[in-house]
Amino acid sequence: MNKTNLAVLAAVVLLPFVVRPAIASEIWIFAIFGLGLNLLMGYTGLLSFGQSTFFGSAAYVAGWLLKHYGINVFVALGVGVGVGAVSAALVGYLCVQRSGIYFIMLTFALNQLFYFIAYQWTSVTGGEDGMPGITRPEFLGIDFKDPLAYYLFVSALFLFSLWIMKRIVESPLGKILQAIRENEVRAEAVGYNAPRFKLLAFVIGGAFSGLAGVLYAMLFGIVPLEAIGFVTSGNVVFATLIGGSGSLYGPIIGSFVFIWLSESVSTLWARWPLLLGLAFVIVVMFLRGGVVEAWTRFWLWQSSRQKI
Amino acid sequence: MAILETENLTKAFGALTAVNGITLKIEAGSLHSIIGPNGAGKTTLFNLLTGQFPPSSGRIVFDGKDITGTPAHRIAHLGLARSFQRTNVFPAFSLLDNVWVAAFACNASWKGFLWSKTDYYPEVAERARQALADVGLSNQADQLAREISHGEQRQLELAIALAAAPRVLLLDEPAAGLSPEETRKMVALVRGLKGRYTIVLIEHKIDIIMSVSDRISVMHFGNLIAEGTPEEIQRNPDVRRAYLGGVAEAA
Fold first, then answer.
1. Could you tell me the pLDDT band of residue B251, with boundaries at 50, 70 and 90?
2. Which of A34, A178, B11, B185 is the most exposed place for a label (fewest CB within 10 A)?
3. Chain A, 204-223: which have a CB under 8 Å from a chain B CB?
4. What ipTM was assigned to the predicted interfaces of this complex?
């Protein structure tokens, strides 16, 4: 086991002692969401500005089933992953036909389409009031209503997701997606059907978003309309960029920074998004690799200083 | 036997006919060069052969099969690989990863590509290393493609095409922008590949063409104006007028 894995594990263990378990859970949920986006944004070079489509759809569908039928918690997760993947396949199929700014606008426009469906369909989604009353059914006698038990559940799923994503980015698929990001024309010329692979990245990213969506719905017991709105899509992009896109662990750090700022600083200072904006500007101007790059640079600087 | 043939291949971009009714036969195992002044339509011909875009009319036959209109990503799997005139590599990848990706694309099986580690495919790694060795870049396998010299990038460009283990290699000006020293190296490289692959070569430098080619086709304003052995081409009056003429008169 290497140092990074150890650090992640230590963070999982220590986090509930530092912040409330609910916030700790939210951090890992958002990290799962970010892992999915990063496969698209960091590895494939596709800036999807509509990830909340998959997050929100999964939260609504699984939330509705939980609320009305009290389905098994793992069935709910499966439904979330499935809805996330299927909605991503639909959206992705349309989006990968275009590139650049048109691609981004398409992800955004389709996100808006899903948003307005949720907004209008009040009998199911509750519209602006959200969909409340989502339960966390117990499993094998474990009561997930206990915040710490739910935290353990979420963090186990987070570690599992991280492991899966690690396998994916280290597989030939990970290399192919990066090749498409680096040079799509050449990737096609050596024999890869780029749109097909982009769609695959969408579906995988959507599955991760869906998992995050269900966990989110169960965490708060409600699916607010914002869960499928463009602000949520933007937040995950911001968080991933701040943490460092293109690095496997970037979205995790980004999620930590983002959720921690929004939950703790927001109680002290209502204008906390200013800080976020500042962090974003710094990243875009000076640190394209986000916190991960800052960290590596710091250690390089440290080690070079020690040599002198 | 001809491995690659075109019949009346034509590509028009609006009013401009870049490739006009080209009928070409590339013999298996030969080195067939395509020459012509700038804008003669040579690169467009390559783009048609490799499915970058479909022809306006005409047919392309590869190994007895009609491949007209086959998209680029499928062409590579048939055994037709190309290099580009403008260096077209994966800049943030190591040299080994550049060729690895190309080698994997044409691997017999993609089984487990979603899940297995990249080192699960020893035959791909072997082909990738061989491709780097063939162009003399083995020692720099771990360097990033954007950090090597232009000359080395041209070699890498060729290695990516080789990594696909193609039957036909289409080389679009492999010596573009190279110094005389680097050009000599590249010519030696191409000569070394001769016989192992069927090669179609686009080149401007006439001395290279004359020394390595088995056959030469001459294009001028989208048309094929002559074809033959290097000696025949040098004697051909049309070619002298259209292409070599300018050089000969100046000399």
1. very low
2. B185
3. none
4. 0.88
pLDDT at A214: 95
CB pairs under 8 A between A and B: 85
Residue A254, sorted as left (phi over 0), alpha (psi -120 to 50) or beta, turns out to be alpha
Closest residue in A to B164 (Cα–Cα): A190
pLDDT at A26: 92
pLDDT at position B114 is 82
On whether any CB of chain A is under 8 Å from the CB of B72, the answer is yes
* B48 CB within 8 Å of a chain A CB: no
Q: Which of residues 179-198 of A touch B (CB under 8 A)?
A: 179, 182-183, 185-194
Q: State whether A173 and B113 contact (CB < 8 Å).
A: yes
Structural domain boundaries in chain A: 19-229
- B92–A187: do the CB atoms touch at under 8 Å? no
Measured between CA atoms, how close is B116 to chain A, in angstroms? 5
Q: Report pTM.
A: 0.89
| Contacts by residues B171-175 (CB-CB < 8 Å, ≥ 24 positions apart) | B171/B82, B171/B83, B171/B199, B171/B200, B171/B201, B171/B202, B172/B42, B172/B43, B172/B46, B172/B82, B172/B83, B172/B84, B172/B85, B172/B202, B173/B85, B173/B202, B173/B203, B173/B204, B174/B83, B174/B201, B174/B203, B175/B203, B175/B205, B175/B208
Residue A74 contacts residue A153 (beta carbons within 8 Å): no
Task: Answer yes or no: is pLDDT of B249 > 70.
Answer: no
pLDDT digit string, tens, across residues A79-130: 999 999 999 999 999 999 888 889 999 999 999 999 999 998 988 888 888 8
Of A170, A185, A189, the CB nearest to B76: A189
In this model, does residue B248 exceed pLDDT 50? no
- Residue A168 contacts B, CB cutoff 8 Å: yes
Over the stretch B107-120, which tens digit does the pLDDT of each residue have?
878 887 888 888 88
Is the per-residue pLDDT at A133 higher than 90? no
Option in A175, A179, A191 nearest B73 (CB): A191
Among residues B227, B121, B30, the alpha carbon closest in space to that of A172 is found at B121
CA distance B89 to chain A (A): 7
Domains of chain B: 1-79+166-251 (3.40.50.300), 88-165 (no CATH)
